Amino acid sequence: MATAVANQAPHQFGKEAEEKKINGGFVVPETNSFGETFRDYNAEGEKHARVENFYKINHKNQTYDFVKKMREEYIKMDKMEMSIWECCELLNDVVDESDLDSDLPQMEHLLQTAESIRKDYPDEDWLHLTGLIHDLGKVLLLPQFGGLPYWAVVGDTYPVGCAFDESILHHKYFKENPDYHNPAYNTKYGVYSENCGLDNVLMSWGHDDYMYLVARENKTTLPPAALFIIRNHSFYPLHTGGAYRHLMNEEDHENLKWLQIFNKYELYSKATELIDVEKVKPYYLSLIEKYFPNKKLKW
Ligand SMILES: O[C@H]1[C@H](O)[C@@H](O)[C@H](O)[C@@H](O)[C@H]1O
Ligand SMILES: [Fe+2]
Ligand SMILES: [Fe+2]
């Protein structure tokens, strides 16, 4: 097993064999594209200070009422009509300021994610497409989509309407969020009930929930696990922190297994080489056709 894994992706995550760690059949690269530890939110430096400030504003403003309003506004899908690929191309112009591990245009990140999954899971074509589209919701930053500020589009996500878990990055800034002091929203269950299912839990507003709504409202034929991944991929307190188990139902537990696989490729492919778009485009166009029967989607 160990040898098989070592042979599997030697060129994928850099050349230094000693820099690799085997993690459940997955080769984890030691450092990101800047030569730093992945997701090191406590490190010093200008970039880290900027990201901390991003979370400060995010935590202050993501309230239950704000999220409800945004969902109501964006579920209308009245902003734009375009295909999935057209949306990918829009992301050529988008860089994610909340991301410590990559400063590439988001289109590159999508291709890196999808292609790295494809290498290890060649038969799960739905997961390749999930990789390609998981961050398309970042178009919310663009003027045609409302030009939302970064704090309402990117960064890790977490439930609103119940207590903010300690494992959420820079948790201390929630003291500035009115919900933190509201007894209706600041208990373990808040407005929810035991094992109510994550579909019934409102998440901080951003690109994840938006893209989930786009896929669902446009009647994608992608499996439920794909929708779960899209909606929860930034929910680090859940898939990495192990929190919020009390809100999950049985189906969520099944879907979480796929999300945890997805997350490794999403995060660690940020250390890989760039992909030749023209070379892989026909493959992804065929997947889009398969899983999005309506050519033009409403956004
Ligand atoms: O900064 C990043 C970025 O916004 C990603 O798209 C998101 O999925 C991550 O969770 C987050 O940490
Ligand atoms: Fe991503
Ligand atoms: Fe994301």
Commentary on this structure:
- The protein has helices at 2-8, 46-61, 64-74, 84-90, 106-120, 125-133, 207-217, 224-232, 236-239, 250-268, 277-291; strands at residues 21-23, 26-28, 81-82, 297-298.
- It has a two-stranded antiparallel sheet. A two-stranded antiparallel ribbon has the order 3-4.
- α5 (106-120) packs antiparallel against α6 (125-133) and α8 (224-232) crosses α10 (250-268).
- With 299 residues, it is mostly helical.
- The chain has one domain.
- Residues 1-20 have low confidence and may be disordered.
- The chain starts with a helix and ends with a strand.
- The protein is built from 11 helices and 4 strands, in the order αββααβααααααααβ.
- A hairpin with a 2-residue loop joins β1 (21-23) and β2 (26-28).
- The longest helix has 19 residues, at 250-268.
- The structure holds 1,2,3,4,5,6-hexahydroxy-cyclohexane and fe (ii) ion (FE2) (2 copies).
- It is an enzyme of class 1 (oxidoreductase).
- Keywords: Ascorbate biosynthesis, Cytoplasm, Iron, Metal-binding, Oxidoreductase.
- This is Inositol oxygenase.
- Pathway: Polyol metabolism; myo-inositol degradation into D-glucuronate; D-glucuronate from myo-inositol: step 1/1.
